[in-house]
């Protein structure tokens, strides 16, 4: 039995429509239809994850070098296998070597990240609060930009004061600055919320459009 | 690396020394002040509400692997599990990264053991769902509904799935508390959760929950680091306004000489 490309496309579309409706059905309540597709989704994603792990990690970093004679790749593989000792209570302590290495790597990366993430932010905060003409070292600052920079500096100071934990908030200046920081944060969160909700609605509209167009296409198929 | 220059080394060393100094001061027995964060006080209350309702607790550590953010979340799991164990309640932890499972299992086991409630601990409550973001979210939503969770904790790195999960928590009537350093997801938690611990407060949670002098000293040290950085920013602002953008401090921070 053979299928034409058009009928395969329609079947794929049918699966996509049913899956979409099943997952969206949880908005009403949890039901058997949702449960079935939830487990399918998790299963398919896990299967895909295993494939990606093989393709991008095991095959590329272990199997291919090994098949080309790089025998030493067995060493990190054996070390990483220690992780599976968690399954054997008697030898579970061996997995801690690996976990401690991971923790150490995480801590080291965070330390380096401080320089690579915080320093550029500090540097880009050096702005002019007065309008100025363009120079060799930087672009011109208009009156509007200068005002914007004042708002930026004020927000930065207020928000940072809000996040100081070791200072008592019993001083009027500190209390008011921290409270202003909190308000400014809420305004920023509101703006983020609004713009993201707009983006989410676009995604929903796209999905509804897909369902409607699929319905029309399948209507022709069944006719 | 652009920022690997002598200035970065001096600043990093000085700031690290500052944090270390406060840790030593704190471990030396000096009581250091840390202001209360309302969301942190609510953690015990939220666990208590789940116990009252007789429903389990769900604790999501988000999408992060074994990193600093997840480690903080795991410390909070230990605290939550300890209170839950006192009342023989369950803490269900769905994870994205299977590497986190043994660590969380160990932490939970210790928490239940410390309350002499080993029999209440079920290792199967720590569940790997999927490494894929929305499959994980679908799984968490399913667990919330089927287990009728009484309280949900969202501590860690979250992305677009944050709203999907927190909205489902609302649907099942769970008391919710969330905390993430990711400012993009905080608005969604603010809209859907009862308590939200925002931004930097996330890293203060563990120091506030425990009376561990190392954590407290570290938090205060970091506060002073922030003060220094703020002063440097104000100085940079002043210099840029007076001298233009090519001043020595900007050059030092850019790692382009100076």
Note down, in words, how this protein is organized.
- The complex is a heterodimer of chains A (223) and B (258).
- With 223 residues, chain A is mainly alpha-helical.
- Among the domains of chain A are: 1-69, no CATH class; 125-129 and 141-217.
- Helices cover 74% and strands 0% of the residues of chain A.
- Chain A has six helices and no strands.
- Chain A has helices spanning 5-24, 32-67, 74-81, 95-124, 143-162, 172-222.
- Chain A is extended and about 75 Å long.
- The two termini of chain A are 22 Å apart.
- Chain B is α/β, with parallel strands linked by helices and 258 residues long.
- Chain B folds into two domains: 6-31 and 217-254, no CATH class; 38-209, Rossmann fold, CATH 3.40.50.
- Chain B has a six-stranded parallel β-sheet with strand order 3-2-1-4-5-6, with helices on both faces.
- In chain B, helix 3 (68-86) links the parallel strand 1 and strand 2 (91-95).
- In chain B, helix 1 packs antiparallel against helix 9 (213-243).
- Classes of the chains: A mainly alpha (223), B alpha/beta (258).
- At the A-B interface, helix 2, helix 4, helix 5 and helix 6 of A face helix 1, helix 4, helix 5, helix 7 and helix 9 of B.
Please give a handful of descriptors for the protein shown:
heterodimer; A: 223 residues; mainly alpha; 6 helices; 0% strand; extended; B: 258 residues; alpha/beta; Rossmann fold; 2 domains; 6-stranded parallel β-sheet; 6 strands; 59% helix; 12% strand
Helicity range of the residues of chain A? over 70%
**Helical residue percent of chain B?**
55-70%
Order of helices and strands of chain B: HHEHEHEHEHEHEHHH
Number of domains of chain B: 2
Spatial ordering of strands, largest sheet of chain B: 3-2-1-4-5-6
Structural class of chain A: mainly alpha
Which whole number gives the mean pLDDT of chain A? Answer: 86
Individual helix count of chain A: 6
Low-confidence stretches of chain A: none
* CATH level-two architecture of the largest domain in chain B: 3-Layer(aba) Sandwich
Q: Compute the average pLDDT of chain B.
A: 88
């Amino acid at each position: 039995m053979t299928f034409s490309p058009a009928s395969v496309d329609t079947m794929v579309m049918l699966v996509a429509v049913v899956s979409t409706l099943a997952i969206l059905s949880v908005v009403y309540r949890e039901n058997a239809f949702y449960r079935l597709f939830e487990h399918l989704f998790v299963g398919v994603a896990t299967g895909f994850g295993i494939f990606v792990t093989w393709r991008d990690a095991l095959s590329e970093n272990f199997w291919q070098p090994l098949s080309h004679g790089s025998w030493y790749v067995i060493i990190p593989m054996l070390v990483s296998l220690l992780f599976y000792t968690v399954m054997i209570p008697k030898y579970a302590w061996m997995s801690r070597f690996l976990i401690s290495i991971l923790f150490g790597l995480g801590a080291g990366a965070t330390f380096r990240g401080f320089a690579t993430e915080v320093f550029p932010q500090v540097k880009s905060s050096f702005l002019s609060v007065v309008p100025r003409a363009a120079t060799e070292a930087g672009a011109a600052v208009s009156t509007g930009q200068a005002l914007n920079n004042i708002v930026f500096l004020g927000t930065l100071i207020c928000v940072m004061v809000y996040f100081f934990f070791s200072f008592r908030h019993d001083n009027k200046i500190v209390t008011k600055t921290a409270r202003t920081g909190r308000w400014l944060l809420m305004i920023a969160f509101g703006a983020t919320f609004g713009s993201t909700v707009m983006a989410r609605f676009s995604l929903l509209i796209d999905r509804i459009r897909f369902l409607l167009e699929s319905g029309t296409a399948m209507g022709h198929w069944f006719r | 690396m652009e920022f690997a220059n002598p200035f970065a080394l001096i600043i990093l060393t000085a700031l690290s020394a500052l944090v270390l100094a406060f840790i030593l001061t704190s471990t030396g027995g000096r009581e250091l002040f840390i202001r209360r964060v309302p969301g942190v006080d609510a953690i015990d209350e939220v666990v208590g509400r789940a116990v009252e309702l007789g429903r389990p607790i769900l604790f999501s550590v988000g999408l992060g692997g074994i990193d600093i953010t997840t480690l903080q979340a795991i410390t909070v799991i230990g605290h939550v599990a300890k209170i839950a164990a006192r009342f023989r309640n369950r803490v269900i932890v769905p994870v994205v990264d299977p590497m986190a499972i043994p660590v969380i299992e160990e932490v939970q086991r210790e928490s239940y053991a410390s309350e002499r409630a080993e029999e209440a601990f079920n290792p199967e409550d720590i569940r790997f769902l999927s490494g894929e973001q929305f499959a994980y979210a679908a799984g968490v939503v399913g667990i919330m509904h089927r287990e009728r969770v009484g309280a949900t904790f969202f501590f860690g790195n979250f992305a677009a799935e944050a709203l999907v999960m927190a909205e489902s928590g609302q649907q099942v009537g769970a008391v919710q508390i969330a905390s993430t350093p990711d400012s993009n997801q905080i608005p969604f938690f603010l809209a859907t959760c009862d308590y939200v611990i925002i931004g930097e407060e996330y890293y203060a949670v563990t120091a506030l929950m425990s009376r561990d002098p190392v954590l407290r000293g570290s938090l205060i040290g970091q506060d002073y680091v922030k003060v220094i950085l703020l002063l440097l920013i104000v100085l940079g602002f002043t210099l840029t306004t007076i001298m233009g953008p090519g001043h020595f401090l900007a050059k030092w921070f850019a790692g382009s000489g100076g």
